[in-house]
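The instructor's notes for this session suggest beginning with a concrete chain rather than abstract definitions. Hand out the sequence below and ask the class to guess, before any prediction is shown, which regions might be ordered.
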Amino acid sequence: MKKPQFSLSFTPAGDLLVVDSLPPHAREAVGPEYQRLLAALCRAMGAEVQLDAMRLHHWPMFASSSLNQGGDEAQRAVRRQLDVMLKKHPARRVLLLGEPAAQWLLEQDHSLEDMRGLTFTLRAGVSAVTSYSLMHMLKLPEFKADCWRDLQPLL
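After discussion, reveal the predicted structure:
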């Protein structure tokens, strides 16, 4: 069985938390284009991004083969990261961008296309919607309009 491999960014913006899917090999901080698009998306949602509070979550976390780095442990790690972020930065709205963010945080195995634009409840008082990742929109700008339509339930 293949071990999960993904990277997520957790970025607070007022009452909004953006969880974005990054390429699994993206071990470095996100670049200026990414940060500009993230800031613009947050502003469009009526929130100011807090780039200094961004946290990157990479899985697997360690290179050791003796540690449990399977799906169940990955799920627990993602949930812990979400709990930490929501405790420090309470949010009422969560954007889950890209398939890994949507699948791991919603505990779903549906494709992104099946989940896009739907409203989910992450916990009491916290709504989430899914759409394309920021990296996807940087590579294919025509998907920005689709993303904007997907995010309307949170406005």
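Then share the key points. The mean pLDDT is 90. Residues 71-88 form the longest helix (18 residues).
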